[in-house]
């Protein structure tokens, strides 16, 4: 398979497909754990294999996932992997059609709900689990005075930093022996706002 890239989404059908909560979770599972068969995806998400197969078909039709037949032990087993390393989109690509603009707004809202939901789950985790991570978890925010060009520069700097750590994470995940290593979710938003 060729090197995976971050995909620029310009089709509202793709936004709608990836915004479904279970499909978003399936994409996250495939991103974090690599290619998985339907049975493993069902087990990780607590869903029936038939339900997983349905959602994988929807995502395949939108080119979000692809089959990985070389990993299957037989013709009945279906393995899946994400097509791209990530997704991004711009509101400008959906401005011309009110229906597409509505899908964009819904997708952005659901995406933010998903991100905040992961943080809320951590804050609700048992004290014993939180104690293992101690002060290593973080939340940070700042009020900055920026031009649009400076915000774009900051965005590129943050994405480059996350890309560097993502590559390191993937390499380290392959190393056995560190029981404390687990997936860590990091997200940031930079938006014009009024205090």
From TrEMBL:
Signal sequence annotation: none
Name of protein: Transcriptional regulator, ArsR family
Xref: Gene3D superfamilies: Winged helix-like DNA-binding domain superfamily/Winged helix DNA-binding domain (1.10.10.10)
Entry-linked Pfam families: HTH_20
Keywords: DNA-binding, Transcription, Transcription regulation
InterPro entries: ArsR-like_HTH, HTH_ArsR_DNA-bd_dom, HTH_MetalResp_TranReg, WH-like_DNA-bd_sf, WH_DNA-bd_sf
Organism of origin: Asanoa ishikariensis
PANTHER family: REGULATORY PROTEIN ARSR, TRANSCRIPTIONAL REGULATOR, ARSR FAMILY
Keyword field contains DNA-binding: yes
SMART domains linked to this entry: HTH_ARSR
Stretches assigned to the HTH arsR-type domain: 13-96
MF terms (GO), sorted A to Z: DNA binding; DNA-binding transcription factor activity
């Amino acid at each position: 398979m060729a090197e995976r890239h971050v995909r620029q989404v310009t089709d509202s059908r793709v936004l709608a497909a990836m915004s479904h909560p279970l499909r978003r979770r399936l994409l996250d599972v495939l991103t974090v754990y690599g290619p998985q068969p339907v049975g493993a995806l069902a087990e990780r998400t607590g869903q029936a294999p038939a339900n997983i197969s349905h959602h994988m078909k929807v995502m395949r039709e939108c080119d979000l996932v692809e089959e990985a037949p070389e990993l299957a032990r037989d013709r009945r087993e279906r393995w899946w992997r994400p097509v791209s390393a990530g997704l991004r989109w711009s509101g400008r690509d959906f401005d011309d059609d009110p229906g597409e603009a509505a899908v964009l707004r819904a997708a952005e809202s659901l995406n933010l709900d998903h991100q905040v939901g992961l943080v809320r789950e951590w804050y609700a985790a048992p004290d014993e689990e939180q104690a293992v991570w101690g002060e290593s978890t973080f939340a940070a925010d700042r009020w900055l005075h920026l031009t649009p060009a400076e915000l774009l520069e900051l965005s590129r700097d943050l994405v480059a930093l996350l890309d560097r750590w993502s590559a390191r994470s993937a390499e380290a995940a392959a190393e056995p022996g560190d029981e404390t290593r687990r997936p860590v979710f990091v997200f940031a938003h930079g938006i014009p706002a009024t205090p």
